[in-house]
Amino acid sequence: MEKKYMVRLSQKERDTLTDVRKRLKGSSQKVRRAEILLKADVQGPNWTDMKIAEAFSCRVQTVDNLRKRLVVEGFEIALNGKARESPPRQKVLDGKQEAQVIAMRLGKPPKGYANWSLRLLAEHVVELGLVESISHETIRQTLKKTV
């Protein structure tokens, strides 16, 4: 299969990657990206994607994606990775609300129910106005922390 994105590194880029690899600068992902890019360089070893994937215990698609990122987005992003586009989600419940959910769980279930289910707890939390909406998974994670 012919490669769509060819890795052509300048001497400065090659030196940077070699330095990262030799000194193990940065995260393990960064070192691995550096090694992959060095092996994929047309003016260097020019290994096949299959051989690179085998050598570094990753998928061929990972190597192809890294090649593409280098060509399309540039050297720095290919080496260091992308920053998140959106920050991680904020917590849905604060400490006081979590305490209320736990207290509700420890109390008696509503009439007609033998036990609290996660979905039933989620419905009651919304009915009480603690939050506008909440999933049963958030309730599960909240209760799991206490066990």
TrEMBL record:
InterPro entries per record: Homeodomain-like_sf
Protein name: Transposase
Organism: Gimesia alba
